[in-house]
Amino acid sequence: VHDCRIKYGIYLLYSIRPKELEPTQYSIHIDIFEKISLKYRGSWLVPLNYSFLPVHRIATELTIPREKNGLDTCLDKNCIHGGCVTYANSLVGKSFCRCHQGWSGWYCTIPYDCTCSSDSLCIGKAANKRPVCICPVEKFGSRCLLGNLAHDIDQNSTCQNGGQYIPLNGNNALERKFICVCRKGFTGNQCERVGSKIIITFHKDIVLPESMLVHF
After folding, report:
1. Which of 36, 57, 96, 125 has the lowest CB atom count within 10 Å?
2. Is residue 172 part of a domain?
């Protein structure tokens, strides 16, 4: 997701699933990474109420925890080549093993070869035995091997006032080829506008209390 102001509709299908006689509880596992640094920020678990996925519409809102809060780690799982992490939206402390690169499985005991580009992240293996790749801003594709032409644009001519230039994937359906992450105090599609602010000053002889209520 590149723009938090846009709602995304994604169709999910089971890639491989046996026809089970007994009902099984399925869930959707969601990982969040920072786009620039590729730093891991947390995971969410969204349960499915029906085994037949196409009839289940899922509307969920992900609240990304503040970076200073850190990750909620746990000790209830023996993760051989990884670490135990608690889901960010779990009220009962449900956890999972987050595996190191090159390892997969419930307890990170299954090795696999990473064929993603060298500047990307491998975070697991899909059902088709291909690695799941997290691409840097200038790459896209299933293995992050495709270059983004929008990244070659002069960033100073697109994002103003020190805004961070983020190219969008080459296969996205949006007309915009990039977005700008603005510095504090600036706004607009290209950070071209100064954000609204109110400066309040008091006479030096006025004794200010510890707190006050200001109404506009």
Report:
1. 57
2. yes
* Residue tagged 């993760």 (tokens): 79
Instruction: Answer positive or negative: Cα dihedral of 145, 118, 81, 99.
Output: negative
CB 131 within 8 A of CB 156: no
Q: How many Cβ atoms sit within 10 Å of the Cβ of residue 35?
A: 16
Q: Please classify residue 152 by burial: count the beta carbons closer than 10 Å to its beta carbon, then call 0-12 exposed, 13-18 middle and 19+ buried.
A: exposed
Residue 109 has pLDDT above 90, yes or no: yes
CA 30-33-37 angle, to 5 degrees, is 170
Place of tokens 């270059």: 147
As a residue count, the chain comes to: 216
Query: Closest by alpha carbon to 84, among 107, 102, 109, 68?
Result: 107
Q: Residue 158 is part of a domain; what is its CATH number? A: 2.10.25.10
pLDDT at 86 over 70: yes
Q: What is the DSSP string of 41-110?
A: EEEEEEE-S-SSGGG--------PPPGGG---B-SSS--TTEEEEE-TT-SS--EEEEEPTTEETTTT-E
